[in-house]
Amino acid sequence: YPSDIDSLRVQLIDGSFQAQQQLIPQLVSRGDNGFDILMEFLYNRRQTPVSLVDGKVYQILFNSEYGKAKEFLQTYFPTGVVPLKSECAIDYSPLQQLLAVQDFQAADKMTIQKMCELAGPSASARKWLYFTEVESFPITDLQTINQLWLIHSEGKFGFSVQREIWLSLGKNWDNLWTKIGWKSGNNWTRYPNEFIWDLKAPKGHLPLSNQLRGVRVIASLLTHPAWS
Ligand code: UYC
């Protein structure tokens, strides 16, 4: 039914975010014709700010068996859909690659590693952050890290998601821990096995911030000027 797939194509181009999200599985079920439309869609979004739909479409093409899709991504999106901007010449492609294959546990470790790199050699050697180091993170770099998480998780993960939840809870830490699955009753969720390393996790579950040394690091992350 070519006219039917044409109509899906038009709906995808013109649709609201919600409509687009619902169209994606329909297109996937059409096989190669559907993938061609998803490629065209992503191609036309090259110059526009990245959205959650772009992330979803990228993810589907990336994980498809369609050879043409792999070639297409190699050519037009070799480092993904999120621009990997850094003010400190940090290479965020290792993080992008882990998120593209949805290896959220390795991506979580890589996030800590990249933030330590951002803080400087002493933090990289120490392998954890001082809140004062987080305060001086460039806005650009934190936004890149956050967008990578957001775009590759259908909007579920990222510091900005944690921040919204924290604000909605009147900045109450204990309620945040419970809401994002970091604590259950009086029990801390144990690292790493009790955390949920896929999209079935509660909203805001990742990336993790160890609370062993107190809340000041996560407080600096969630109040960073990157989000205002
Ligand atoms: N861990 O419990 N965590 C570690 C979390 C706490 C602890 C790493 C998060 C409570 C120890 C990450 C939570 C606590 C280590 C996280 C959590 C605790 C460790 C690896 C829920 C005991 C060994 C990166 C809030 C009651 C580390 C890193 C060491 C590691 C994350 C214990 C990402 C979100 C208060 C003993 N935990 N952590 O930072 O220093 O080491 O030897 O938050």
Explain this structure to me?
- This protein has 228 residues and is mainly α.
- The protein contains 13 helices and two strands; from the N terminus they run H-H-H-H-H-H-H-H-H-H-H-H-E-E-H.
- A two-stranded antiparallel sheet has the order 1-2.
- The relative contact order is 0.09.
- The structure holds ligand UYC.
- Ligand UYC is lined by residues 112, 128, 177, 182, 188-189, 191, 208-212.
Which properties best describe this structure?
228 residues; mainly alpha; two-stranded antiparallel ribbon; 13 helices; binds ligand UYC
What's the N-to-C terminus distance?
A: 48 Å
Count of helical regions: 13
Q: Strand sequence of the main sheet, in spatial order?
A: 1-2
Number of strands: 2
**Structural class of the secondary structure composition?**
mainly alpha
Helix content: 55-70%
Calculate Rg over CA atoms.
Answer: 19 Å
Determine the strand fraction and express it as a percent band: under 5%
Low-confidence stretches: none
Biggest sheet record: 2 strands, antiparallel
Q: Which sequence of SSEs, written as H and E, runs from N to C? A: HHHHHHHHHHHHEEH
What overall form do the CA principal axes indicate? globular
Please tell me the overall pLDDT.
Answer: 96
Ligands, ions, cofactors: ligand UYC
How is the secondary structure organized here?
Elements: H1 2-14, H2 17-28, H3 32-44, H4 52-62, H5 67-76, H6 93-100, H7 104-119, H8 121-126, H9 131-135, H10 139-151, H11 159-168, H12 173-179, E1 183-184, E2 187-188, H13 216-222
Helix pairs in contact: 1-2, 1-3, 2-3, 2-4, 3-4, 6-7
The site of ligand UYC has 12 residues, from loops.
